[in-house]
Amino acid sequence: MLTVKKFSATWCAPCRALAPVMNEIKGQFSGVKFEEYDIDNFPQVAEKYRVSSVPTVIIEKDGLELERFTGLSSKMAYINAINERLK
Could you confirm whether 65 is annotated as catalytic? Predict the structure, then answer.
């Protein structure tokens, strides 16, 4: 299964800008699992995925990292990456 993991923090302005974008994207992909982690509440998960800055979005399939976005990217960048991995 394809999984999109979003790492963010409440104090991060780009993370707040990314939140509504990811909510829109979630609505377009019913067969994709979306997970969200606040790095302050889930530091062990952020450490496991070596997240050193936020926002970070990781696209995985069956536990294997396929793509990573660090910083804020365009909505289409995320959509294109998900579509590419669903092929």
Answer: no
Q: What is the pLDDT of residue 87?
A: 83
Catalytic residue list contains 12: yes
pTM, two decimals, is: 0.95
- Helix H, strand E, coil C: the string for the chain is CEEEEEEECCCCHHHHHHHHHHHHHHCCCCCCEEEEEECCCCHHHHHHCCCCCCCEEEEEECCEEEEEEECCCCHHHHHHHHHHHHC
Q: Which of 6, 7, 15, 51 is flagged as catalytic?
A: 15
Which entry of 4, 6, 7, 12 is annotated as an active-site residue?
A: 12
